[in-house]
Amino acid sequence: MIIPHPLLGPRDSQEFTYLGDASLIERPDWQADNAVDQFHDYLYLRDNPAGAHRELWFHEQGDRSWLVVTRDTVTHEIISAELARDVAKAKGRSK
Amino acid sequence: MRYSGFRVLKEALTGHKGWKPAWRDPAPKPHYDIVVIGGGGHGLATAYYLAKVFGKANVAVLEKGWIGGGNVGRNTTIVRSNYLLDGNEPFYEFSMKLWEGLEQDFNFNAMISQRGVLNLCHTDAQRDAFRRRGNAMRLNGVDAELLDTEGVRRMAPFLNFESARFPIKGGLLQPRGGTVRHDAVAWGYARGADERGVDILQNCEVTGFRIENGVCKGVETTRGFIGAGTVGVAVAGSSGRVMAKAGMRLPIESHVLQAFVSEGLKPLLPGVITYGAGHFYVSQSDKGGLVFGGDIDGYNSYAQRGNLPVVEDVCEGGMSLMPMIGRAKLLRMWGGIMDMSMDGSPIIDRTDVEGLYFNGGWCYGGFKATPASGWAFAHLLATGTSHETATAYRFDRFRKGLMIDEKGVGAQPNLH
Ligand SMILES: Cc1cc2nc3c(=O)[nH]c(=O)nc-3n(C[C@H](O)[C@H](O)[C@H](O)COP(=O)(O)OP(=O)(O)OC[C@H]3O[C@@H](n4cnc5c(N)ncnc54)[C@H](O)[C@@H]3O)c2cc1C
């Protein structure tokens, strides 16, 4: 699989390590009343879709940036790749 | 008698026209007491034990394709009960005991071959961990032997003992481990269940659940609605997809695992050998092919085929452990979808929907579990309570911190 790195262009997926569903960016608020439930769901439950999947890849053998890659889990086709940083910022996070 | 030497001779002389299918192809009934979704090893074993042990005959197995087309027909057929943790070991040993009596039990030749499973170690720390695991196995009444380098050499003189980087320091041997003809397991259970009245419905994909007021009333399928008192889901790699139709998210990710088989060679390997310093394990089939594999590819997948980096990784492992295989030709390679759970251990449990039960999270080790999984799931479906060896396989173990994490890597399914 070739990942279209937003800064470095097409890179072999072997240069990356895989973390999983991009929802892992959205860490729950530990002070919420139902923090235990939220953390259980955050840490252990997955949508695990057959089809388009947004997921985190770390460019370990490259520029060490985190990417959010949208990939089809049925065909392995890579649809897009964004910097995880940009995704987080777009959601209102500071970094 | 349906099968005999005389019958083979007779059929040979009459053009093999007298053989009949080994199980029926019935039309779905409008309602069953128990519906099992998934005609893999686990679903078929569940139906078999439901009928045979728990006296339930009004049972159907719903399979979206043909039985045995999923992981039960794709795995590398290794069976063993060499686990460390208490939540696992009694369950897998129960399974091993069922394997040992299975051919007599369902009267089908599953070619169960207990030639031993040998895990190699390459460092002192690894040997310590093996000693601990071997002791834990023995405390659970399971056979385990710790071999030193010479012990390994006697069993497998062809391994690369001279490797400076990964010297073979010994191994943990489970002599009762081995391999089983995987297709025959599916067929044996299917025939045994069918004979006892279970309807095996192929080309019958479950497309939804009918849930009213929190109670599961049956399933929507490509062959129409089928009512059920109790529904058990055993769809392995498709777990996430199917349970989403009941509105559930699972502690499971689907990943692809590849396997490989070489051309047939003369008898070479004494049993199953696993490399402790790379991702490679190997056994030899009765036809002579080397059956081998390694790790999952490592990213979510429903593709039933993998990518080349893992092929390279597995072959490198093989070459580093037993360089003599370098000239063997590869015949086939394929992939299957693994239901990788968050702690590497399975789930056999009820769900929040009344009458809906779940069996999954088998990772790449569910073939060996087939008999015990079927028995324990049948126990749960028939009695509403967990089998004594499967009490730890609950959904709420993640919430309660009672993970059964053999590898100790946490909620990172691609590392289990
Ligand atoms: C390459 C490879 C090597 C492996 N090696 C080993 C090994 O050496 N030892 C070991 O113990 N384990 C091994 N495994 C793991 C083992 O094969 C699985 O854990 C086990 O087979 C899963 O249970 P099953 O047999 O019931 O699954 P499956 O045979 O996959 O059965 C699930 C069935 O559910 C059906 N299904 C899915 N969705 C629906 C639906 N909506 N409606 C109806 N039916 C549906 C599927 O078509 C499928 O037939 C390996 C797996 C692979 C892929």
TrEMBL record, chain A:
GO terms for biological process: tetrahydrofolate metabolic process. GO terms for molecular function: sarcosine oxidase activity. InterPro entries: SoxD, SoxD_sf. It comes from the Bacteria. This is Sarcosine oxidase subunit delta. It comes from Albidovulum denitrificans. The lineage of its organism: Bacteria, Pseudomonadati, Pseudomonadota, Alphaproteobacteria, Rhodobacterales.
From TrEMBL, chain B:
One of its GO terms (cellular component) is cytoplasm. SUPFAM superfamilies: FAD-linked reductases, C-terminal domain, FAD/NAD(P)-binding domain. Its EC number is 1.5.3.24. It catalyses: sarcosine + O2 + H2O = formaldehyde + glycine + H2O2; sarcosine + (6S)-5,6,7,8-tetrahydrofolate + O2 = (6R)-5,10-methylene-5,6,7,8-tetrahydrofolate + glycine + H2O2. It is found in: Cytoplasm. Keywords: Cytoplasm, FAD, Flavoprotein, FMN, Nucleotide-binding, Oxidoreductase. This is Sarcosine oxidase subunit beta.
